[in-house]
């Protein structure tokens, strides 16, 4: 059961970071994935991780710089996972991952998060693009 919970937490944090990176990728027209988004995901409506999913589906076809950006996002997700796994489990364990729900949950509990998690989330927020989503 503990391994299942760890896997759930990992997936939740990964989805959260992937969503943040995807919104950043889409929002930055002059960035490494802008042409790839235009080429492969032109009809995809932004939001809810749809752009990230589209890019993932075309991963083998992406440009070199975009592939590098996606790899950096995966590495960043691992760092956030390590720092925030306990917080996600503690505060967001009942939240279904996807569409920014875990990110919103962490934001709602920002004052209660561990120092390590706060630091990693601040680093994510410093990157250009959209901030963590607001409560809907």
Describe this structure in words.
The protein is mostly helical and 136 residues long. It has one domain. 66% of the residues lie in helices and 0% in strands. The chain has six helices and no strands. The chain has helices at residues 2-27, 34-40, 50-57, 64-92, 101-108, 115-126. Helix 1 (2-27) packs across helix 4 and helix 4 (64-92) runs antiparallel to helix 6. The radius of gyration is 15 Å and the shape is elongated.
Alpha-beta classification? mainly alpha
Shape: elongated
What count of domains describes the coordinates? Answer: 1
- Number of contiguous helices: 6
User: What percentage of residues falls in helices of 4 or more residues?
Assistant: 55-70%
What fraction of residues sit in β-strands?
A: under 5%
Radius of gyration equals 15 Å
**Biggest β-sheet, characterized?**
none
Q: How many angstroms separate the termini? A: 31 Å
**Low-confidence parts:** 25-30, 129-136
Please provide the count of β strands.
0
N-to-C SSE string, H for helix and E for strand = HHHHHH
**Averaged pLDDT:** 77
Question: Topology, pairings included?
Answer:
Elements: H1 2-27, H2 34-40, H3 50-57, H4 64-92, H5 101-108, H6 115-126
